[in-house]
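INFO batch 0412 | record 1 of 1 | parsing
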Amino acid sequence: MSRFMTATGVWIGEVLAVYWEDIDFEAGTVDVNYTVIRAAGLGLIRKSTKTEAGERTLPRPRWALDIVRRRHEVTLVSERAGLPEQPPWPARPVEHPQGHPERSWRGRVRLGDLAGLPEDGGHDPR
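INFO prediction complete | emitting tokens
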């Protein structure tokens, strides 16, 4: 998956949202129209990108196409064995040892506090 992300420049949520029908092996392209997000009470869901600019068709280098083609061959074997169809990189929820990673910030020191910066309600300075 990381090689595919390197070849296309997509975000992790976007690569997890790619389905086989989004990949054109003959043209060597992938359509990126969706992303996977974590929704409260629902878990992981596939939704359209935030803006139309996020919807794009990307060319892939030959080596990246070979990676996806090999994954597709494995998926076809699984389907013949009676297993349900899977996207190229299934998004499986992983149980975090301390609960959801976003909740694990409770009790930790905010970097802005250490630097003496006020909390503005937005993202901390990076």
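INFO post-check: The chain has a mean pLDDT of 76.
INFO record closed
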